[in-house]
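Review form for a predicted model. The reviewer records the input and the model, then writes brief findings.
Reviewer: anonymous (R2)
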Amino acid sequence: MAKRSQKKVSSYAAKDIQVLEGLEAVRRRPGMYVGGTDIKALHHLVYEVVDNSIDEALAGACDQIDIVIHPDCSVSVEDNGRGIPVDKHPEQKKSALEIVMTILHAGAKFGGDGYKVSGGLHGVGVSAVNALSEWCEVEVKRDGKIYFQRYERGAPMDPVKAIGKVSKDETGTKTTFMFDRTIFKGDFEYRYESLIQRFREMAFVTRGVAIHLLDERDGREMTFFFEGGISSFVAYLNHNRGVLHPVVHVEKETDGTGIEVALQYTDAYAESVYSFANTINTIDGGTHLTGLRAAITRTINDYSRKNNLLKDTDPNFSGDDTREGLTAIVSIKHRDPQFESQTKVKLMNAEVQTQVQQVLGEAFYEFLEENPRAAKAVVQKCLTSARARDAAKKARDLVIRKSVLESMTLPGKLADCSERDPNKCELYIVEGNSAGGTAKMGRDRHFQAILPLRGKILNTERARLDKILSNNEVKAMISALGTSIGETFNLEGLRYGRVIIMTDADVDGSHIRTLLLTFFFRYMNQLIEAGHLFVAQPPLYRISYKKKIHYAYTEAEREQIIKGLGVSGDRVSLSRYKGLGEMNPEQLWDTTMDPANRILLQVTIEDAAAADRTFDMLMGAAVPPRRRFIQTHAKEVRNLDV
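Model under review:
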């Protein structure tokens, strides 16, 4: 019999079983409750508190929510709902407010009639926020009084007490909290833009509720109120697009599930579809999104066959054919939503797929029957898409087959690296042969590859995939990356862990960068979502004084460096870089390519709907919105040479 190893085994007895009391589990493992301790999780704290107010709105008890970011970065969320109950719980023998704020899985969302529909899944929302806050204070207006309780790192300081009086009909809850910097370590601050995007979405899917955000740090504020609900959301997304018909809207309750869908076809080539469950943006979709897509494809095929718009020899439209140019929102209200995780990014309720498919299928078919002109335009759009998709498949297969036949020698202009582990490799996509030559000489050949582009790539916002794949610069990128494109995109084939866009700091450079970002957003979105896409930040200025060289990446940094030298500006040698080609290889390495010194901006998409609308506005066919944007933001633009 084999002898057990003499290696010391750690103790594993009853005394070693650790019980985390109350909210300590949240503080020890914040990732399980709010998704981590990064900037995204920080914003999630605000959303969890606002979700409680939205739940009051869904119950028909609230129509006003006010959010304030205070100068010290604490946040207040106030609503005019019913107010959290404050009387003593019959079993716990303490105020219901204290229970809600300090005990996980406590609330009116687990059975009973407190809430028919709620965004909360695990009942950990506000108690998790309390646990992850340095301090938290709650004021409740109820029964003609104002009640108050303060908590520090989740623990109540005193029992709930009445601190004032209000009129009997004045009710609501105000929660103010300061996130705990011992947990959220980093130079974190709330981003006004991220918050307004989220609150805009909430207002769209919670019809008739006013959501007001005030940022006391700089005085910015905004109020959202949409009587039209998700139909307004579709109109908002399609503001810069040519539409083929009015918005199709259906709202119905089936088997206790509230289903609402709004959709409209446009002359665009991209699909813009978003899904919500109990007002929460399920960014990874789920069963409600699957139901929507299935209903649209089946309905268009059934209508086309019945009305002889498809020949007997024609195959049915695929899902991709029927979704080109589609803008749609599906929003469901479910009494017991099942999500993939606490951060609620994917809906899992199996029955919802059939419910959405049935409700939308009936309503959409009825719309097509009653609006034959609109129906014909939609089917024609699908037919054109199907033909283009077939051409794109042939073009894509040609691109892939060509790279295989070339035994992965890749594009001739690609200067590859010697490292073969993709996680250690970087690909610089560089504007022009001049900068490409400098980058090739300045790089570390071991792990840095260079792909120079000739001129500007095709504007992929205004072209279908078949045309895009005939563009040599696009083909070179696809071959170099190794992921394929569109529906056959496969992240596992990626040959470089970092894909870095490196362009000049001038008008042409900015345009090329935007063209590239548009391409990646529309056709290689997973590359962005997985955190592989970056933008290089070359310096704007070279400052020389007494044989010492300094580089400035912004105007403010230039002023700061000159001020730090303690001399007047005319005594230093100042060079303004207009292009990467103006630097010698050593300078380009030192400033822009050396991992020890360079600045890389990671490309992320915090709000897909906002990004969709922005790319459409910047790169789409409609000129007036682009002109308005330029006129509005011209004074904010920096690092621009005309």
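Findings: The CA atoms of residues 125 and 580 lie 49 Å apart.
Further findings: Residues 230-387 form a domain with the Ribosomal Protein S5; domain 2 fold (CATH 3.30.230.10).
Recommendation: see findings above.
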